[in-house]
Design brief:
The protein is mainly α. Among the domains are: 80-182, no CATH class; 186-217 and 282-398. The protein is 44% helix and 10% strand. It contains 13 helices and 8 strands. The chain has helices at 3-30, 55-79, 81-84, 89-101, 106-110, 114-130, 138-164, 169-182, 197-206, 284-298, 311-314, 326-330, 336-345; strands at residues 44-48, 51-54, 186-194, 209-210, 222-224, 279-281, 323-325, 389-398. Strands 7-3-8 form a 3-stranded antiparallel sheet. A 3-stranded antiparallel sheet has the order 4-5-6. A two-stranded antiparallel sheet has the order 1-2. The radius of gyration is 36 Å and the shape is elongated. The N and C termini lie far apart (86 Å).
Length: 401
């Protein structure tokens, strides 16, 4: 047969085959696919009181919730396949323990009560179920853990690569912000807890201390001072036999040009009546002594602290009531306010070692804002939380980094 004819026939036959394949392919792509169906869709699956849920209603709800979860997990497994099988059994077991108990500290785990263990197990199982895995299937649990570890490893690798390449400044800034927020190490402090602002003021005044910032005066804890000249102590200083500056019912606690004597009862003075003249700034050692006195006063059920302790002595404090870790406190919703005060407002993590003795922040700041000074506000009235009032004397800060 002529070669030219053979060539033409081959082209024609090839074209026919191509047309047939395209036709079959289009038919395959456009043909109606079988849709998953529920057998007996109208049958009642469960009844609760007057509410009945059909099999079809349950199926539709499961598609909306569980379907997307399983799809996301499947896609992540494909995208993270290079990490998925790189973890050892020891790493997997350790992660399961952490997910279950929230820690790998064996001492903490051993100290859990039976009731706490039941609650821990319940939460652990719920976490797995909500993530689309079966807590009763070991393979499913391992798959869940491998997926979590893979996500963490991939994220860490990407962040480190961006940092190395100096890319994604927004992400780097966010990572730095989170690190600075969550990694502030430990602080040793004498912490005084009050139920209200009124109680705090009462305790401070009980020890002759001024619980307010004084406008224009150096920041710091101050003691109330009232020195009345001997010849004025008999109430004759203004010729009218009046004492304590109470002429016409006024209690301003200072010489006001009318011959009034100062008020020497700290409980009778308002915040604006404390001045540099009737107070004095305490030395760091005095601040420590007063904090110890207030601590012993507030906590008579605890072992009393020796009032002669020095700052160096407080370095040896090992009791939990004097040592605080930011992560531990911030992870507890009840303690988050105290964590913010202790680590944010005291700003101990910004201070050099030689300043970490209570001087740098006002010799025992109150409520983290020097009651209006630290934030640039000279208002001497205290700015306190609604329900809690904290006073702390920082001594030692150890940066986690």
């Amino acid at each position: 047969m002529n070669a030219a004819i053979v060539k033409k026939m081959s082209i024609i036959i090839g074209s026919f085959i191509l047309v047939i394949m395209l036709s079959v392919g289009c038919n395959f792509l456009t043909r109606e696919r079988p849709n998953p169906m529920v057998s007996n869709p109208n049958d009642v699956f469960v009844s609760l009181g007057g509410l009945s849920i059909s099999r079809q209603e349950l199926y539709e709800r499961m598609k909306l919730t569980e379907g997307i979860t399983h799809l996301v997990n499947h896609i992540d497994e494909q995208l993270l396949s290079e990490y998925f099988d790189t973890f050892t059994q020891e790493e997997i077991d350790k992660e399961i323990e952490r997910l279950k108990f929230g820690t790998n500290d064996q001492e903490v785990i051993d100290n859990l009560s039976d009731e706490q263990r039941l609650e821990v197990d319940k939460n652990y199982r719920m976490t797995l179920v909500m993530a689309g895995f079966n807590p009763d299937d070991d393979d499913s649990v391992e798959r869940f853990v491998r997926l979590n570890l893979s996500r963490t490893a991939a994220t860490r690798a990407q962040v480190l690569q961006d940092i190395e390449n100096n890319e994604n400044q927004t992400l780097m800034g966010e990572v730095d912000r989170i690190y600075q927020r969550d990694n502030r190490g430990n602080v040793t402090a004498i912490q005084l807890l009050f139920l209200s602002q009124a109680e705090a003021e009462s305790v401070y005044k009980h020890f002759g201390l001024v619980p307010y910032a004084i406008s224009g005066a150096p920041a710091g804890l101050r003691a109330f001072v009232c020195e009345v000249p001997a010849e004025e102590e008999n109430g004759e200083e203004n010729g009218n036999g009046e004492e304590n500056g109470e002429e016409n019912g006024e209690e301003n606690g200072e010489e006001n040009g009318n011959g009034q004597a100062p008020v020497c009862d700290i409980f009778k003075l308002t915040p604006t009546q404390f001045t540099e003249e009737n107070t004095r700034l305490l030395e760091p050692e005095e601040v420590l002594e007063f904090f110890i006195l207030m601590y012993n006063y507030l906590y008579p059920f605890r072992e009393a602290l020796d009032t002669t302790l020095t700052f160096e002595d407080t370095d040896a404090f090992e009791e939990d009531v004097f040592n605080f870790n930011f992560k531990d406190m911030n992870s507890n919703r009840v303690k988050q306010l105290a964590a913010a005060h202790l680590f944010d407002s005291l700003k101990a993590f910004h201070l050099p070692a030689e300043e970490e003795n209570g001087e740098e922040n006002g010799n025992g700041e109150e409520n983290g804002e020097e009651n209006g000074e630290e934030n640039g506000n000279d208002d001497p009235t205290p700015d306190l939380p609604r329900n809690d009032f904290y006073s702390v004397l920082p001594r030692r800060y150890t940066n986690a980094a």
